[in-house]
Amino acid sequence: MAYKHRQVIDTIPPYKQGKPAPIASSQRTFKVSSNENPFPPLPSVREALETQALGAINRYPDMRGWDVVRRIAEEYAAYGVRPENVVLGCGSTEVITQLVNLVAGPGDEVIYPWRSFEAYPIIVTGAGARSVQVPNRPDGGHDVEAMIDSINDRTRLIIVNNPNNPTSVSLSDREARRIMEAVPRDVLVLFDEAYFQFNDAPDANVAMTLYGEFPNIVVAHTFSKAYGLAGLRIGYAIAQADVVEGMRKVALPFGVTQSAQIAALASLDAEDELMGRVESIKSERTRLFAALRRQGWDFPRPYANFLWLPLGRGTGEAVKCFTEAGLSVRAFEGEGIRVSIGEPEANDAVIAVCQRIMAGTAESGLPRHPAA
Ligand SMILES: Cc1ncc(COP(=O)(O)O)c(C=O)c1O
């Protein structure tokens, strides 16, 4: 149907959700396409939902999410964070949307690395602003100098994604500081740290360490990844109180459910147990990386809960191999494949299929070298 609408919306690429595990009766299949946490919900989180949340779903949630907000402020009190510096959203996706809607509209520009989180162009275009996508360095890291060179009078926001989705490359403290020192003080910089708990790079930046020094920093975190609450949709940002106030004005009213808030609080209570799970995902990542390196793969060392195979034009064929092996992965046609770290059996299957791809059988027609 022809209907009157904002033409710019026609330019938005649809978000491609990671596919579910392939259906196969002959083998176990796995979803390693959405960077989810492979562990099931913690018993304590389940119990909190059963005892506190289910009976209250006829009521609207606390719109400000004070209990969670206060708790997060306590966690970051050492950095000078107070409750008025914390804002919740339906996942960090909504937090990022709030921020973009607050600062950028028609005629304004938002700078971010590319390839990166695929929601960025959707959110920026949806706000009516223009995306300035700065190509990553060949190793998949942010091209910090090119990002700085892109700043002009129209710039309203710079997004840093650390570690970067999908390349899994970590941003160093030196690079983060370089960005902050170059950006005008009245332009906000968003550090999207959805995967920071997985980042053990020795020189990794943790944006909160710069927060006290640079008031124009906004840090976005999520309960979806390390905390395993992707299905409940809750994330948060830490920023100056007036920025938080502005974000609240454009937030989806009642967007963060009480169930999500209860699960977030229970997860914060179980922090040690959850960080233990993060450690085991990291050790699986180390095992995968070492195995693939031994096979001859050449790709950046991963610092999030996924790895990036820069297969270039071999991507489509390789995806078929993964699917046949019972694995759904996230393909970026012509660029590469992002594989989440999953259950040990899923990771074994990834190692086996990567071996086959690397062998480059005549039938598959794949190049021997992943970046060829
Ligand atoms: C870089 C990055 N930021 C933010 C998010 C948003 O996650 P959520 O909305 O579930 O908090 C994701 C999810 O995949 C991501 O990869």
From TrEMBL:
- Cite the SUPFAM superfamilies for this sequence: PLP-dependent transferases
Q: What class of enzyme is it?
A: transferase
The record's comment on protein family reads:
Belongs to the class-II pyridoxal-phosphate-dependent aminotransferase family.
Q: Which cofactor does it need?
A: pyridoxal 5'-phosphate
Name of the protein = Histidinol-phosphate transaminase
Gene3D superfamilies per record = Aspartate Aminotransferase, domain 1, Type I PLP-dependent aspartate aminotransferase-like (Major domain)
Q: Which organism is it from?
A: Bifidobacterium bombi DSM 19703
Cross-referenced PANTHER family: HISTIDINOL-PHOSPHATE AMINOTRANSFERASE, HISTIDINOL-PHOSPHATE AMINOTRANSFERASE 2
Q: Where is the Aminotransferase class I/classII large domain?
A: 31-348
Q: Name one GO molecular function term.
A: histidinol-phosphate transaminase activity
What's its EC? 2.6.1.9
Per UniProt, the keywords (alphabetical) are:
Aminotransferase, Pyridoxal phosphate, Transferase
